[in-house]
Design a protein that fits this description.
Oligomer: single chain
Strand content: 5-15%
Helix content: 25-40%
Largest sheet: 3 strands, parallel
Protein name: Methyltransferase domain-containing protein
Organism: Cyclophora tenuis
Radius of gyration: 26 Å
Distance between the termini: 88 Å
Length: 206
Amino acid sequence: DSQQQQQHLPTTATQKPRENKSSNQKEEKSSFSLAYEQSFGFFDDISDYNWKLMQRRAAARINHKFGKNPLKYNGQPAHWYMHNFEPDFACAQERRIGGPGDGPKWVCDPHRLTKISEERKKNEGVGCLVYSVGCAGKYHLEDGLYELLGPVCEIHVFDPGNFARDDLKDKNMHYHPWGFRSSYDDTYKPFARGEFRTLQETMEEL
């Protein structure tokens, strides 16, 4: 009887399904590739599914409350920003670099900068590049980035004035005495005095 019972025991519980290791490995390898490629290696832990959801959300968002007149309230910055371009991307490990108050800035997942900068320095010989506009002689953000990243990142500071420091070269920081102006609106006049260049002009020179 025991032999007869054993013959009728189900075998599916002990049988393992056949796995296609190559296809599983390929799927696992590519499941985070979209965000990685489109963020230039910055995001390496966001799945393709979630990345596409984020893209659809951004594409469907209405940026201007007054679509026919997006410049409404442009003379009142607080009102204008309230009605235009609300942030639709959140960073899980966002940090304020440089301390509290004016000068320091919120940075999206700065720990990723450390990782990707070290990888690029090793593979390509260069780390990351930072453009900081408008320091007014306060280097809170730049000093904070240096403490976080070290000299692996090249930091350029732009401000029309005279805000250079003696220790900048040792920290791979570079001060430039000009600000940025519009590249398409020649009628725009910056409030501050001094020299102004477009981003394109700056990149070509540096």
